Sequence to fold (90 residues):
Amino acid sequence: MGHGPPRSTRYTGNGDGRRGVVAFVAGLIALVNGGLVLATADGSPGIGNGVVAGAAALLLGLISTVLGGLARARSRRTSRPQRPRPRSGL
Fold:
């Protein structure tokens, strides 16, 4: 009794940024793949050449790259040990 719910931090990882790197790399792969599909697809959307899928891969790859970069930047910011501030000589 008297104990609250378990802390959610144990489920989110230790802040080393690996998940951000994975999301960033997967986003880059999707960006390249979507770009290649759009470059080689002939025709218009709706005829089965993958134009819509290529555009979707391009958009989702861009989103994944941005979110992975933000996650990586955030993990770098929170994982650095803080230095003690020097005291003033008053």
Observations:
- The chain has a mean pLDDT of 77.
- The helical segments are 18-40, 51-79.
- The radius of gyration is 22 Å.
- The longest helix spans residues 51-79.
